[in-house]
Write a structure and sequence with these properties.
The complex is a heterodimer of chains A (276) and B (290). With 276 residues, chain A is an alpha/beta fold. Chain A has a single domain, classed as TIM Barrel. Helix content of chain A is 46%, strand content 12%. Chain A is globular and about 45 Å long. About 3% of the residues of chain A have low confidence. Helix content of chain B is 42%, strand content 13%. Chain B has an eight-stranded parallel beta sheet, covered by helices on one side. In chain B, strands 2-3 form a two-stranded parallel ribbon. In chain B, 47% of the residues are buried. The N terminus of chain B is likely disordered. The chains are: A alpha/beta (276), B alpha/beta (290).
Chain lengths: 276, 290
């Protein structure tokens, strides 16, 4: 083998290795909130990227082919719009990794059974949209999971999960602001998946205790954040690796007061690539 | 299920009102009458009703009770009446309605904080998605109409409200379900003028559910009802609020407008403490006037 061929081959191997890592990475749409056009963020002059083009932009710029969206990102839910969206994703050789649902006033912790039913109804609708978009997961907001509402929250989640299974869409829950033990209890009882998020813990002790458990019960995706003053992202990824996690790490950065949202995304991507 | 004693009492009431089985002169008239579940709110067991020993009627038995007691075979529900939205639940619900030889006339939607007047586009989309789900449920219940709550319709949201109605209506048409809204009026609320509501309904491509009780005064009622009774999807609400207006006058206006659809009775607390009697009193007025 000549030196030139050897060097080219090594570069290809290196690129392939990176690609296999990149295949385990997603980026959340919220990272690029200031750049996105759309009804959820009207009138922002920096908003130049159409939501439908986000996957293409992420693929081209980062080589990442998975994107997480918020339900509030979508300016329409009509069949024609979703079909066009799916076709744009395919053009970018990308996949929608997860849709995060956060309905106004509606969640599984509502004490009012009518509100819980409305949360179930809307979630089912979004499971249908996820299926239409070839998206394998939706994440639901749990609303706090206070002890007195936990049984009804579990029942609501079971209903959502059963519907999701019929459509090959997983339902996931992240710790959010609830005690992580409560979230684990609800996830187990309802038969849904966890969406671990290393940023959502009050302290290092709870993070270190919860992440191994949560990474053992995912629906195939998780979130990574980078808040150096609070925790070490590399350490969190190490915990995921030790738990045998083989799923997706979805990058979540804050775009608030940041002149260029790409900078924090690139910084966190480098950390993830160096540690998975 | 309705108990024998309740059935006999109901039949006796019907007899007294001249509408007993066998000699009901108004079978054709009765087929144009519906009764709303809200009339029986104090006695119905629903997920939205606080636990109360007075609540003795299961929502699934409501159609049966109405058919047995009043000979009325059209029933109208609030979406908050249903304790589940699973297909098996609706299948059983429909079986019970059919067992009473009845039909669900309309499902009325009152989503918490979600209506077409929302300024936030995300909320508007949630409203559309939820309404589509209930249009699907109406199909499961073989119900031909779904009524929406339009909110206050301030001028600045009217264009987006109309766009939403058009989206919902397009979906409903593919399912053979008609979308309606009713005029609304409360002294303590911001109310859209009836003529503005009519414009929004026309532009949205939906229908009106006239409600004789929902006007601030006799003048607006007299002006609005003839227009509204020509824009229905085949159903309307009839109230009787003694001292404010006569249900008979509303029915007369509807007939003059050539209306041949359904009058759905909406009795409230101001019609008396006993919902059974309150409904009977309005039924008597309807049967005497249609």
């Amino acid at each position: 083998m000549q030196l030139r061929e050897f060097l080219m081959s090594s570069a290809a191997v290196a690129a392939a290795a990176d690609q296999s890592k990149l295949d385990r990475i997603a980026v959340m749409s919220v990272c690029f909130a200031p750049l996105l056009k759309g009804t959820a963020r009207p009138g922002n002059p920096k908003a130049t990227v159409d939501l439908m083009d986000l996957a293409g932009m992420v693929a081209e710029r980062y080589g990442i082919h998975r994107v997480d969206f918020q339900q509030a990102d979508f300016p329409s839910q009509e069949t024609g719009y979703l079909q066009e969206f799916r076709s744009k994703l395919k053009q970018a050789n990308s996949q929608m990794n997860q849709i995060n649902l956060d309905f106004a006033n509606l969640n599984i912790s509502a004490p009012d059974p009518v509100i819980r039913l409305e949360a179930i109804e809307l979630t089912k609708r979004w499971i249908d949209y996820a299926a239409a978009l070839d998206c394998p997961r939706v994440m639901v907001a749990h609303g706090g999971l206070a002890p007195e509402v936990r049984p009804s929250a579990i029942a609501a989640l079971k209903t959502m999960s059963a519907y999701g299974k019929a459509k090959n869409v997983s339902v996931a829950l992240d710790p959010g602001t609830a005690p992580w033990e409560a979230v684990v209890e609800v996830i187990k009882a309802a038969g849904v998946g966890a969406n671990p998020d290393c940023g959502n813990f009050p302290d290092k002790a709870s993070r270190a205790a919860a992440l191994p458990v949560l990474y053992g019960m995912t629906a195939g995706s998780s979130r990574v954040e980078h808040v150096p003053a609070k925790f070490d992202t590399a350490e969190a990824i190490k915990i995921a690796n030790q738990a045998g996690y083989k799923g997706v790490f979805s990058i979540e950065t804050s775009s608030r007061n940041i002149p260029d949202p790409h900078v924090p995304v690139r910084a966190l991507l480098d950390i993830v690539l160096a540690n998975i | 299920m309705i108990r024998r004693r309740e059935f006999l009492m109901g039949s006796a009431t019907a007899l007294a009102s001249g509408a007993a089985w066998g000699k009901r002169p108004g079978k054709a008239k009765l087929s144009r009458v519906g009764i709303m579940s809200v009339c029986f709110d104090p006695v119905l067991k629903t997920p939205s009703g606080a636990p109360d020993p007075k609540r003795t009627v299961e929502i699934m038995d409501f159609a049966d009770m109405i058919a047995a007691r009043y000979g009325v075979h059209r029933v109208e529900y609030q979406h908050t009446d249903f304790s589940s939205t699973e297909p098996a639940y609706f299948k059983e619900f429909l079986r019970r309605v059919k067992k009473a030889k009845s039909q669900v006339n309309q499902v009325n939607l009152e989503f918490a904080n979600l209506n077409i007047s929302a300024a936030d586009p995300v909320i508007r989309l949630e409203n559309i998605a939820l309404t589509k789900s209930w249009i699907d449920h109406a199909v499961e219940l073989e119900c031909p109409r779904v009524m929406l709550n339009q909110g206050a319709l301030p001028a600045e949201v009217r264009p987006s409200a109309i766009a939403m109605l058009q989206t919902m209506s397009a979906y409903a048409k593919t399912k053979n379900v008609s979308l309606t809204v009713e005029p609304r009026w409360r002294e303590d609320a911001k109310n859209v003028p009836w003529d503005v509501l009519v414009d929004v309904i026309k532009a949205g491509g939906i229908y009106i559910n006239p409600d004789s009780g929902n006007f601030p005064d006799l003048e607006s009622r007299a002006a609005a009802l003839p227009v509204m009774y020509r824009m229905t999807a085949g159903s309307s609400h009839v109230k009787d609020i003694p001292g404010k207006f006569h249900a008979a006058d509303g029915i007369r206006i509807s007939k003059e407008a050539g209306y041949t659809g359904i009058y759905t009775i909406e009795a409230r607390a101001n019609n008396g403490p006993d919902p059974y009697t309150a409904v009977q009193s309005i039924l008597d007025i309807v049967l005497a006037n249609i």
